[in-house]
Amino acid sequence: MKFIHLSDLHLVGSGATLHGLDPRDRLRRCVAHIRRFHADAAFVVLTGDLTHGGEPGGYAAARAILAEMPMPLHVTIGNHDSRAAFRAAFPHVPVSECGFVQDAFDTPEGRFILLDTHEPQQAEGRLCAQRLAWLERALRTSSGPVFLGLHHPPFRVGLGRMDRIRLRDGESLLGVLRPHLGRVRHMFVGHLHRALAGSWHGVPFSGVRGTNHQIALDFVTQDVAPVSFEAPGYGVVLVSPEAVVAHLEELPDGESR
Ligand SMILES: [Fe+2]
């Protein structure tokens, strides 16, 4: 099974630039690249921050550009999103009974669970009791391999600002996952605007670049997350019973591969 991991589009409403870059143009380039080289992917998982400020125009643009991809899109939201504006623009995206942008869907390699860590007016991520109870049910009603997707990582990565705005409820998430840890095959995160991989309490994870700007690998600066202008990118994930392989496609300026 092959799928695409997209994250952190940061579209703006007016079509203006963000950090001197055009988020719509860069997303269009990524979508064209996916269409050209990975049209055989089974689905796309998008781990949040579709917009930079929850702008309705940003969601309209996201919907139009993402619709160019031929495969199904599974999406949750991040701290830069607005849950209400997202749901207005993407009314077909499943939500939990409490209105969180959470979904569990079955794939040939196991159940994929998307969690909504957005908390209004907060940069850090939250998983409240309602969201965790939904996760517990999604896990309890499946017995095979599980994949997780969420915006905020529950772990520190060594970047001061990003560590402070990680998922606040990591310990609670771990508590829900603990009876199932042996079958949680991989966790896909956004938020960091960097390609990285590792493991958290034995759960392998990977994160991908954003499609607009990146966050510098700066272990010194503490008060802000310095923007960097590394190329946009997205993940190409290959899953078999034996392995999960998370590639990064990056799109250098001026060439498509
Ligand atoms: Fe982001």
From TrEMBL:
Keywords: Hydrolase, Metal-binding
InterPro entries reported for this sequence: Calcineurin-like_PHP (IPR004843), CNP_phosphodiesterase-III (IPR050884), GpdQ/CpdA-like (IPR026575)
The keyword Transferase belongs to this UniProt entry's keyword annotation: no
Source organism superkingdom: Bacteria
Location of the Calcineurin-like phosphoesterase domain: 1-194
One Pfam family from the record: Metallophos
Protein's name in the database: Phosphodiesterase
Lineage: Bacteria, Pseudomonadati, Pseudomonadota, Alphaproteobacteria, Acetobacterales
